[in-house]
Write a structure and sequence with these properties.
38% strand, 4 helices, Nucleoside Triphosphate Pyrophosphohydrolase, single chain, four-stranded mixed sheet, 7 strands, three-stranded antiparallel sheet, alpha+beta, 163 residues
Length: 163
């Protein structure tokens, strides 16, 4: 949780806050995408988090990606913007947010995968078939169906599906 959100929570408690954040879809050379198993909800999601005061969303995306995964983004491309009731969320502790989220695609990166203690339980690259199998069960952000469609439309050579 950002310092800004933590400070607001002291005043408003669990009431709904407007929250701006950034997420990153990391794609490996085989066309698989990186997802993390969240420690708070036990759902698979892409790395991301809240924007701090005066922080650029690109900086948020890079910071959150590194903090949660150990990956350094070398280049980010805008993937989509999420807002509306689909990204209204209630955290397990009762905190409620209405998100505006800018999601980036990262194909150029460096570093070695490592889970952020407590926040991230596992990190794994997924093929379209693997994403499809967990869709609707234990996957978190609403951008995932759009991600899956995008992955399938590109029909990347070399991806071996595990059915």
């Amino acid at each position: 949780m950002s310092e800004y959100i933590a400070d607001l929570r002291k005043v408003v408690g669990h009431r709904t806050l407007m929250q701006v954040g950034a997420g990153v879809l990391v794609e490996d050379p085989s066309g698989r995408v990186l997802l993390e198993l969240r420690g708070d909800t036990l759902n698979w999601a892409y790395p991301g988090g809240s924007t701090e005061i005066d922080e650029r969303v690109e900086e948020t995306a890079r910071r959150e990606l590194f903090e949660e995964t150990g990956i350094l983004a070398e280049k980010l491309e805008l993937f989509c913007i999420n807002s509306g009731p689909e990204v209204h969320f209630i955290y397990p502790n009762g905190d409620e947010v209405s998100n505006v989220e800018i999601v980036f695609l990262c194909r150029s990166y460096s570093g070695e995968l490592r889970c952020q203690k407590g926040e991230v339980l596992d990190l794994r690259f997924f093929t379209p078939g693997e994403v499809k199998r967990i869709l609707g069960t234990d996957i978190f952000p609403p951008v995932i169906p759009g991600l899956l469609k995008w992955m399938e439309e590109r029909k990347i050579e070399g991806i071996k599906e595990i059915e």
